[in-house]
Design brief:
The structure holds two protein chains of two kinds.
Chain A: H1 22-46, H2 48-55, E1 62-67, E2 73-79, E3 82-85, E4 96-100, H3 103-110, H4 116-121, E5 125-128, H5 131-148, H6 151-157, H7 166-184
Parallel strand pairs in A: 1-4
Antiparallel strand pairs in A: 1-2, 2-3, 4-5
Chain B: E1 13-16, H1 24-29, E2 36-39, H2 42-46, H3 49-58, E3 67-68, H4 77-89, E4 94-99, H5 101-116, E5 126-127, E6 137-141, E7 153-158, E8 163-168, E9 176-179, H6 189-208, H7 214-236, H8 241-260, H9 265-277, H10 281-312, H11 314-318, H12 325-344, H13 350-353, H14 361-368, H15 383-394
Parallel strand pairs in B: 1-9, 2-3, 2-4, 4-6, 5-8, 6-9
Antiparallel strand pairs in B: 7-8
Helix pairs in contact in B: 4-5, 6-7, 6-8, 6-10, 6-12, 7-8, 7-10, 7-12, 9-10, 9-14, 10-12, 10-15, 14-15
The chains are: A alpha+beta, B alpha/beta.
Chain lengths: 190, 395
């Protein structure tokens, strides 16, 4: 006897589930946010294009990227012409916030299953703050991803892969990863 | 598993057509309102449009509260606060906005203060910072372009902060939008053309940008069909009530479309030249639309090709090879621009506005990159590319 009124004989097998459990997704997102913040800090120290955008941000500017529940989250602030990770994020109120509506949406984006622009188009995340600043931060994030990720991965994260020569990309990526490692041995700014 | 996903919301009741204004008493009564504040501007009042609305309400024994007509062209926080004071001191229980985009935006922000009993509206600025319904709100557009009567956004010039304050919330949406051809019959030809091209741009960008979805597409298509069919006849015969109504419906449908599939590069450029040189938003959209479509062609050739069906009809669409449809569609938009220019002088190029110098284009390109609408454009835009589009739109 068919007990499920929504299922008739001959229906295809149920489609695959949503992937890893939410708790696994949350741990993955937390790790990726930790990684992104430190790579962006390093990229903002070595890449002129990113430094140019950061320089145009107002003094005292800070931003966070978080999941709706508040965690995981990354918080960064303008420091000179670069960006610095804020370790004790509870001590500042960010000027700008990017907020994923659910950890599953953050997982989609940070596992490169959905690009950031597609996530905006799909209403997965919202922006609270000045859009002019948000656009600068998004350009910095895009540039950083284009530099540190292999092209086939960056192509999934970005709207368009920018025109960067391989030699330039490798040289900048090496400097960013180098700076990233150096920063790991320093105390993060707070 | 499919990765398809979209959101769509359009809760505004549209009351559209012949004698639509006379439905207002019923709409107020069913929402428990008996004393609406009328929000408008001096130009709309001088045109006699507020009187038409008040007469329609009073004819059924309805009560109308005071008229607040101190809304400036770009709105202002002072007007929001002053209007809210009038609302509270006069014992009003609803708002009727009669006007264009500035009046609508002001009335939306005013409704926050009216509901909260005063205070500083800035504490509700930003994204989704309202948590409950506001007072009954009826929107009566007197232009056919902005679509503000169906959007959840209010942008208010804030002299104190030296910037524009932005409010976004579903609760800002009017309860009812009344589209009555009597409200746009006296619109000057130039404004008629600029606002129609504004609505066309809303629909075309909603159809071609990243947020497009099946429902926003349906509204965009219907809007494009109406504008391509009726804009020129209305410019030739401004008293054409059917055409006026069709354009008002198109503007509302385009508003619904872009509320659910936000606009892109055309608006980024138009916002910038509007802020820097005061170029009318609709005229600026009209100037940039073909150049931006050509720029976006590599990423959305099929969608732009589809536009030919809505712009030119089934016979032309069927008689045009798939390869040529995108260019033909852009050509049809350029034809509309040419006709509008011939009939009322709507500028076709940046140079024709007489407000921008060519030397300023690099600054326009730089500033436009920071406009939030860039996120939804189908292509990423570099400074050099933005400058190329501006040069293409120059002359």
């Amino acid at each position: 006897m068919n007990r499920n009124p929504h299922k008739s004989i001959g229906d295809p097998a149920p489609v695959a589930g949503p992937g890893p459990s939410y708790s696994v997704q949350r741990r993955y997102v937390a790790f990726m946010m930790w990684l992104i913040a430190r790579l962006l800090q390093a990229a903002s120290a070595v890449d002129r294009t990113i430094r140019s955008d950061v320089a145009d941000l107002p003094e005292g500017f800070s931003f966070c990227m978080r999941v709706r529940s508040g965690t995981p989250a990354l918080t960064m602030k303008k420091s000179g012409d670069g960006l610095a990770v804020v370790r004790r994020s509870s001590e500042i109120r960010p000027t700008l916030a990017f907020e994923f509506k659910h950890v599953a949406h953050a997982f989609l984006v940070l596992s490169f299953q959905e690009s950031t622009p597609r996530a905006f188009a799909n209403d997965r995340l919202s922006i609270d703050g000045e859009f002019t600043n948000a656009m600068k931060v998004l350009r910095c994030l895009n540039r950083m991803q284009a530099l540190v990720l292999p092209r086939f991965v960056a192509g999934r994260a970005l709207k368009e892969y920018p025109a960067i020569g391989l030699a330039e990309k490798l040289a900048l990526a090496a400097r960013i990863y180098g700076r990233f490692v150096i920063d790991l041995f320093r105390r993060d700014s707070s | 598993m499919t990765d398809h996903y979209f959101e769509f919301s359009s809760p505004v009741k549209l009351v559209a057509g012949f004698r639509a204004l006379e439905h207002i008493p019923f709409e107020l009564e069913t929402r428990g309102a008996t004393r609406p504040l009328i929000v408008s501007d001096k130009g709309v009042v001088a045109a006699g449009l507020v009187e038409v609305v008040m007469a329609a309400v009073r004819a059924e024994g309805g009560n109308v509260g005071p008229v607040f007509d101190d809304v400036p062209p770009d709105s202002s926080m002072e007007a929001v606060e002053a209007g809210a004071r009038v609302y509270l001191e006069s014992g009003c229980d609803a708002i009727i906005a009669v006007g264009g985009g500035s009046v609508m935006d002001t009335a939306k922000a005013m409704n926050i203060m009216a509901t909260e009993g005063g205070g500083d509206p800035r504490r509700f600025a930003g994204y989704n910072n309202l948590t409950h319904r506001l007072k009954p709100f009826v929107a009566i557009p007197t232009t056919a372009g902005t679509g503000s009567e169906v959007t959840a956004i209010s942008v208010i010039k804030d002299r104190e902060a030296g910037s524009k304050t932005f409010f976004f919330s579903q609760f800002l949406l009017p309860d009812v939008a009344v589209l009555d051809p009597r409200m746009t019959l006296k619109l000057p030809p130039m404004i008629t053309a600029a606002t129609a091209m504004d609505a066309l741009t809303h629909a075309v960008e909603a159809y071609t940008c990243l947020g497009k979805n099946p429902l926003s597409d349906a509204y965009a298509e219907a809007a494009i069909r109406r504008i391509s069919r009726w804009m020129v006849p209305v410019l030739e015969n401004p008293q054409d009530g059917d055409g006026r109504l069709a354009l008002a419906e198109a503007a509302a449908m385009a508003g619904i479309a872009f509320s659910n599939s936000p606009v892109g590069l055309v608006h980024a450029l138009a916002h910038t030249v509007g802020a820097m040189y005061g170029i009318h938003h609709g005229a600026a959209n009209s100037i940039f639309l073909p150049a931006v479509l050509r720029f976006n062609l590599p990423r959305c050739r099929d969608q732009i090709g589809d536009l030919l069906l809505y712009l030119a009809g089934a016979d032309v669409y069927a008689g045009t090879s798939v390869d040529r449809r995108p260019e033909e569609a852009i050509g049809r938009i350029e034809e509309l621009k040419e006709k509008a220019h011939a009939l009322c002088g709507l500028p076709r190029t940046l140079a024709e506005t007489g407000k921008v110098s060519r030397d300023a284009l690099p600054e326009v390109a730089t500033r436009s990159l920071d406009d939030g609408t860039m996120v939804m454009n189908p292509r990423d835009v570099t400074y050099e590319q933005a400058l190329e589009v501006l040069e293409a739109a120059w002359d």
